[in-house]
TrEMBL record, chains A, B, C, D:
Free-text cofactor note: Binds 1 zinc ion per subunit.
GO molecular function, one term: methylthioribulose 1-phosphate dehydratase activity
EC number: 4.2.1.109
InterPro entries: Aldolase_class_II_sugar_metab, Aldolase_II/adducin_N, Aldolase_II/adducin_N_sf, MethylthioRu-1-P_deHdtase_MtnB
Gene this chain is encoded by: mtnB
Protein's pathway: Amino-acid biosynthesis; L-methionine biosynthesis via salvage pathway; L-methionine from S-methyl-5-thio-alpha-D-ribose 1-phosphate: step 2/6
PANTHER family assigned to the protein according to its UniProt record, in alphabetical order: FUCULOSE PHOSPHATE ALDOLASE, L-RIBULOSE-5-PHOSPHATE 4-EPIMERASE SGBE
Name the record gives this protein: Methylthioribulose-1-phosphate dehydratase
Length: 184, 184, 184, 184
């Protein structure tokens, strides 16, 4: 994620499920491209710290929501790309429509580029509980991810490898939509 | 290809001819930038697996078509760049016209930048047999490659090095055309 | 900074506070991505060389100004990004307004993306004393940095790590504003 | 140069002066980012091969012209960037005007960003002798480089390090001009 410029400054969060009750997640602050063991803590599925002295990031709640909703999800990635940030500010409404892209097939269940999929697009909110409530209604679409306006992308998968494949596919498609809007 | 961002997510395929009857090709799925020996299988020139338990990617058929058509081709590369993906969706018709670029000389037989060459541009199709039939009529032009709309680029050469040189030249030229369209 | 393309050619300067009276700073000229021990010299807080034979860069004065103004600043970074350079030439007036970006929270004291912050934007000037005088009136805003028109970005922090986090956040936000202006 | 994408495919040439009569230069073809000892040959200042079996690139003549014109030049770099290629095709006339950029000071003799410098812009030509004749009249301006339309950039310096500093400054400035044209 760092190599692609998706975790600039202190942005982004990475988590992996340890077992049915616990996840490892990056702490608040710190540059994710310089991540060390000390930059990771353990929380339960409701975001309560299981690491002594640990203060979870406010966005830990969004990670936990995904793990609670999908018992087979093993990893959640959250990044801040320029493409997703800018695109999400110019697209109106609550979804980014994608169709005609071969890359759509990177999402499970999509077998043709002719599919029309909608990436959920939600207004950013500092009240994570309120935001989680809105996200809840959008988790079950064909895309294993969503976009927060002016903020970034969440993506998930059964393990870290698949979550990265989903994030890369989503960022690729969002960047295509972003670049297309620069053409006259 | 990974370094340039041309094999995002599970996109892209890479193959090399082993001998007159066999090619080694990347399996379906998997991130090509993390490719290991296990991610490669052997098929015959009609795409039938010669590796126990191997399931070739659907696009193996497009690779095999190129090896059958050109006995001197030793490698085929297929990538998904943002430039080719977006450009191919805004260019109408069945070709991308290039002229006035020194880089055209990277294609065999082109001795001047004043040449006008057309990169074949084909609609994407999930029916690989049908798509192969359409590709068949476009393989013999001056450009050792073609573009699938909303999908990506195929390029080939006598060995992997030359195939990469052709792919890089083609992606450079497509990116120039793409960027030029962003200028008012 | 080199990896992101922010110190092209001989551009940019990097400094770190050694103690209350001295800073280490890159010398004039030289490519910062190839920096060696010989490329660094020591100056006092007024820019006078404490290294035998050393000639400080003209911009050393802007670094010293920041260290004098903020006793808790431990590092100052100055880069030349294409985004900041071009954006600063098309934005009129003396500030670049940012709002609606989650990344704003990377700046101390900003707790919501709804904040509206202004990045100071100053005309470039070869008279560093005169420029320092103008900069002086703009140092105390919420953004730990400023932009010189057609020139680049200054950012600072309590140590080199935090200065880099601030620079990355600022460059990310400037790039978002820059890219947004390319969209029709 | 490879890292920045300036020598795609078989594009670009790199040369270094060995002494008053000889230069080492990259051979025709081959990817410059994979350069080995075998990819380099020695020629005299008129481009005649001093390496047994060596065939100099057609563009060797443009390198030699620069070494003959400037006895203190120790290295010449020629690359193909997308920015320079596309910009050179949309700018009319025989020069690219730069002013208001701090980076102009990277060129010897420029002491202020307020300087207005013109980068020579020449139509590409496969007749290198004819092209050299046109280049001859443009070598003595303030910019240690020039642009061939639809082709790329030449830059030089007293040694390879300085030539790279000049090339980086020139590419930075051309990219700024290119990006500025994408803004509405």
């Amino acid at each position: 994620m760092d190599r692609f410029g998706w975790v600039p400054s202190v942005g982004g969060n990475i988590s992996v499920r340890l077992d049915a009750e616990r996840i490892a997640i990056t702490r608040s602050g710190g540059r994710k491209g310089f991540l060390t063991r000390e930059g990771v803590m353990v929380v339960d599925l409701h975001g309560a710290s299981l690491t002594e002295g640990g203060r979870p990031s406010a966005e830990t709640g969004l990670h936990c929501q995904i793990y609670r909703a999908f018992p087979d999800v093993g990893a959640v990635l959250h990044g801040h790309s320029i493409a997703a940030t800018v695109l999400s500010r110019v697209v109106e409404g609550d979804g980014i429509v994608l169709s005609g892209y071969e890359m759509i097939k990177a999402f499970a269940g999509q077998t043709t580029h002719e599919a029309r999929v909608v990436v959920p697009l939600l207004d950013n909110d500092q009240d994570i509980d309120r935001l989680s409530g809105i996200v809840a209604g959008r988790l079950n679409g064909p895309v294993p991810g969503y976009v927060l306006r002016g903020h970034g992308v969440y993506a998930w998968g059964r393990d870290a490898d698949q979550a990265l494949m989903h994030l890369e596919a989503l960022e690729f498609l969002l960047d295509c939509e972003f670049q297309a809007r620069k053409i006259n």
